[in-house]
Write a structure and sequence with these properties.
Blueprint lengths: L1 E6 L7 E6 L5 H11 L4 H7 L7 E5 L5 E6 L6 H15 L6 E5 L8 H11 L22 E6 L4 H26 L7 H15 L2 E5 L1 H7 L2 H7 L7 E7 L9 E6 L1 E5 L19 H16 L4 E11 L11 E2 L7 E2 L7 H15 L4 E6 L3 H7 L4 E5 L2 H14 L3 E3 L17 E2 L8 H11 L7 E5 L5 E2 L8 E2 L4 H9 L2
Parallel strand pairs: 1-6, 2-4, 2-5, 5-6, 9-11, 9-14, 10-11, 13-17, 14-18, 15-16
Antiparallel strand pairs: 3-4, 7-8, 8-11, 12-13, 15-18, 19-20
Helix pairs in contact: 1-2, 3-4, 4-5, 5-9, 6-9, 8-10, 9-14, 10-13, 12-14
The protein binds ligand BES, manganese (II) ion (MN) and zinc ion.
Length: about 475
């Protein structure tokens, strides 16, 4: 699908989408629309309320189809995105080859949500369906999206469109990686993706294989890998802006568990299949690196992804085992299902020792506890730095990828005190699990003054219109990009 911006022209598409917000002006807006569409003035007042996702098709005598698309009362970026994603997903096979979207009454800023929503609306989960239906005319190779903007928005609109396109392309690949079953996605798959992306967009990617991981002493990662038939990888991606000074050096660490059985502390089977998605942190980190490089953001970025499966096997780490780590600290493994914090211990440790970033952020599908706490509508935010917290909350609000702060108080350290090792990976109690996990990670940041941990277990894989099962959201990419662009 090609995308094109136009201004001051009649929309070219046989299908035209006109978004409408539920403002105090709605009655006037609908009157104006009625006269533009040659409808009786009262018709729209009666039939269209501009509720979120409400879509009213109106046919014109010349055969064109117009959709009025409701945005509800508070049309944030996420609302725009969802409204367009929903309409395009539902109508994908009824769209004409060229579709126009009329944004001439709106700020060019919304192009990002519109483009991502439309590109995402064409997504499907049918990767392994044998008689996969052909994409409709619009989503096929010949498809065209025309975005009509006001003439005074032309200059600002172009870079926003470029950004939206870069974002949508990478975002989609991350959805595919997340949704991919674990027999098609091993740690090496993540490494291969990162290496290819680095080559294409000009940033450096180093991958430690099993031997490299052993040489580096990434013992915590090795211990989680012990039960797996697939070797682990440790991915280090680094993007440096060329010919411009970097605003800051930002270190991102993402959990890359390509399947989490729980290990010997095995999970119940009912939802275990969803654990193919236990690499949502890795997807957010890798996706963000690629987009930052595409857009040449003025920030020095380092992304680290420790990746392995967590499997059950005669060689697997057992509850009670004591393991080492990159920083030399010993960990008593009370529960092998608390494996994310173990591999992140090495990811964080390696990051702080070797890169000393100004800002350190990790993302992980870390605990069921954060889902019990916040449900599926926000990720847990843990940070020791109030400025960083404020910046991240600002980006969360802006993008609609919501975060909510949870405490890092030292009283919770008792939960990870071990009798036999420097610390243990689980308190043994069914409470405050997301917090004690964060306290565990904190130990491996070596008191970094600007660290944030995002527990994205509830937000990375969620219910959507795309399927009957939970599926990928790409959570974190838009959030991190907004954060990086505002550093
Ligand atoms: N990957 C899971 C967390 C998770 C649960 C992500 C549900 C997405 C949906 C993590 O490795 C895990 O198993 N956590 C345990 C920790 C516990 C054993 C201390 C949990 O939260 O139950
Ligand atoms: Mn687990
Ligand atoms: Zn896990």
């Amino acid at each position: 699908m090609q995308i094109q911006l136009t201004a001051g022209q009649k929309p070219a598409g046989q299908t035209l989408i006109i978004p409408v917000a539920q403002t105090d002006e709605l009655a006037n807006v609908l009157d104006a629309l009625a006269s533009r569409l040659n409808l009786p003035a009262s018709a729209l007042q009666h039939d269209f309320k501009a509720d979120f996702k409400e879509a009213l098709p109106v046919y014109q005598p010349d055969g064109r189809k117009i959709y009025l698309l409701g945005l509800g009362k508070e049309p944030s970026a996420m609302i725009w995105l969802r409204a367009f994603r929903d309409l395009f997903f539902r109508q994908k096979n009824r769209l004409t080859e060229t579709v126009s979207v009329d944004l001439s009454d709106f700020d060019a800023e919304f192009i990002e949500s519109v483009v991502l929503g439309i590109r995402w609306g064409g997504y499907d989960l049918k990767l392994h369906v044998t008689d996969k239906p052909q994409p409709g005319e619009f989503y096929g190779d010949e498809g065209h999206l025309e975005i009509v903007i006001a003439e005074n928005q032309q200059e600002t609109a172009q870079p926003i469109l470029a950004r939206a396109d870069a974002l949508a392309t990478t975002h989609r690949q991350m959805l595919d990686l997340m949704n991919s079953p674990s027999n098609y996605k091993t740690p090496q798959t993540l490494a291969d993706w990162a290496v290819a992306s680095g080559q294409q967009y000009g940033y450096s990617v180093t991958v430690f294989d099993q031997a490299g991981i052993e040489r580096q002493g990434l013992q915590a990662l090795l211990s989680v890998n012990q039960g797996s038939a697939h070797p682990p990888v440790f991915i280090i991606a680094e993007y440096k802006p060329e010919g411009q000074p970097a605003t800051k050096k930002v270190g991102l660490v993402g959990k890359g568990i390509t399947f989490d059985t729980g290990g010997i502390s095995i999970k119940p089977s009912a939802s275990m299949h969803l654990m193919k998605s236990d690499m949502g942190g890795a997807a957010a980190v890798l996706g963000t690196l690629e987009i930052a490089a595409k857009l040449k953001l003025p920030v020095h970025l380092i992304g680290i992804v420790p990746s392995t499966e967590n499997m059950v096997d005669g060689n697997a780490t057992k509850p009670g085992d004591v393991i080492g780590s990159y920083l030399g600290k010993t960990i008593e493994v009370i529960d092998t299902d608390a494996e994310g914090r173990i591999i992140l211990a090495d990811g964080l440790g390696y990051m702080v020792r070797n890169f000393k970033p100004d800002v350190l952020i990790d993302l992980a599908t870390l605990t069921g506890s954060v889902i019990a706490t916040l449900g599926y509508h926000a990720a847990g935010l843990f940070s020791n730095n109030d400025d960083l917290t404020a910046q991240l909350l600002r980006s969360a609000k802006q993008t609609g990828e919501q975060l909510w702060p949870l405490p890092l108080w030292d009283v919770y350290k008792e939960d990870i005190q071990s009798d036999v090792a420097d610390l243990k990976n689980f308190s043994g109690k069914p409470m405050a699990g997301a917090i004690s996990a964060a306290k565990f990670l904190e130990v491996f940041t070596e008191s970094h003054p600007a660290w944030a941990h995002l527990d994205i277990a509830g937000t990375a894989f969620a219910d959507t219109e795309f399927g009957t099962q939970k599926n990928a959201t790409g959570f974190g990419i838009r959030l991190l990009l907004d954060f990086l662009r505002n550093l």
